[in-house]
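Attaching the record inline, Q. Sequence:
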Amino acid sequence: MLKRVLTLSAFLCVATAGAQPSPPPLDEGGVGLGLALRRLGVTARVLYVTAHPDDEHNAVLVRLSRGEGVRTALLTLTRGEGGQNAVGPELGTALGVLRTEELMEIHRYDAVEQYFGRAYEFGFSFSVEESFQKWGREETLGDVVRVVRSFRPDVILTLALESTGGGQHHQAAAQLARDAFRAAADPARFPEQLAQGLRPWQAHALYRSGVGGGDNPNDADAAPVPIAVFDPLLGMTWTELGGLARRAHRSQDQGAGRGPATAPPARYVLVDSEPALPSSHGLLDGVDPTLPGLLRFLSDRETPAAKAMAAKLEQLQIGVGKAQAAFEPRNPERTAHWLQVLLRILRELPREVPEDGRDEVVARLAEEQRDVERALALALGVRLSAQARDDAVVPGQGFGVDVSLRNEGREPLRLGALALDVPPGWTAAPSEDVPAQVAPERKHASASR
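Structure, as predicted:
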C-alpha cells in the first residue's frame, strides 16, 4: 500500500489563544478542495483600500478571492473608532477593537487578507483636509505605500475621490490610494522603507468606486464587475455570500442574513494605470494572471534560462488544469497525483529563475507552492488543528497547546515532522512522542506543547 510523506506545521501566534475561530465549512472537505484548486495557476493580486471597517464591497471581495482565486487584500486605514455601536456600550478605542474582530470574522467567509493603517477615526467629518490634518497626511500616505510595497498588487481598488456632504474620510482614503499608486514606485518617496528591506512597486491599475463600494451608474466608462453569479461550489451567488460575510459588522447593524441573489454589477472607474490603458472593461485588463504570465518580471525573455523557465511555467499551468479537471468532491484523492507533480516542479523551479526579476518570480512561486500544499492536504484528507488550553495568555506565561492530526483519507500517512511555528523568542517542545504513522480515519493528538 502506498504511503505518502508529509511535513506538517501549525502556526500559533495569539494574544487570546482560545478566541481563534475554526474555519467555516467552505474551507474544508470537497468544497474546500474545490475552492483551493481555484487559486492554483492564478498569480494576480488585488488590494482594496478603504477608510473604515464596512466600507468594503463584500460581494466584490467574494468574487475576487473565492470565485476567481485571486490573492486579495483589504487595507482599512482606521479601525472605526468613531462609529456608533448597535450591540453594546463600547465606543472609541474599545469599539475599534470590536470592529477589528468583525472584519476578521468576515474574512473567514471571503478568504481575504487584512491590513490596517494607524489613522484614528475621530468621528464624522465634512472635510478631507480635516482628515489629513488629524491623521497626518504624509504618515498615513506612508502606511498605504508600505502596504502596496509589501503586498505588491497588480490592481488597487478604492472609494470615490470626491463627494459632497459628510463622511469625507472615504474621499481622504481614496486620494491617499491614488497618490500611493505612483509614490510606491518612486524610490525617493519614503526611503526608510527601502532601508528596511521593502522594494519599490508599480501597480498596473487603480480603480475607484463609490462610498462603501457603491456603484456609479452615471459613469459611462466604468468597468462592470458582475457579482450576482451563482457559484455551484458555494451553493449561492457571490452577492449572497457577501451578505453572509457582511452580517459580521453587527456593531454597525449591517444585515442579518444572505445578501440578495440578484444585483446589478458593481462598477469601477479607471483612475490611473501603468502602462496607460485607454479604457477598461475588466479589473484585470492588461494583467496576465497565469503562471506563464510571470515572465513579465524578466527584462530579457530570450535568454536560454528564460526560455527554460517559460517551458516549466507552461508545464505547471497544464498540470493545474489537469488537477482541476480531476476534481470530484466525493473522490478528492483523484487530484492528488497532479498536485504532487506540481509540487515537485515548484520545489525545483526557484533555483532556475534568472537573476533579473528573481525576487518577484520566486515570491509568487512560493505562494503557488503553499496553495498546492494546502490543496494536497485537502485531497489526502489531512486535517491539522492546534488549540491553546488557556482562553487568555499574558507575556511570560507558559501554556499548553493540543495539536490534533486526523487522516480522513484512504491511505496511511507517514509523518515526517510535527511542530509549532511560533514567534521569535517563544519556545515550544513536545510533551510526548509524535506517532510515525497516522492510519486512515484515525485521530492522533499530541498532548500539550
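Confidence is low (pLDDT under 50) at residues 1-21, 442-449. Residues 295 and 310 are 7 Å apart (CA to CA).

More tomorrow.
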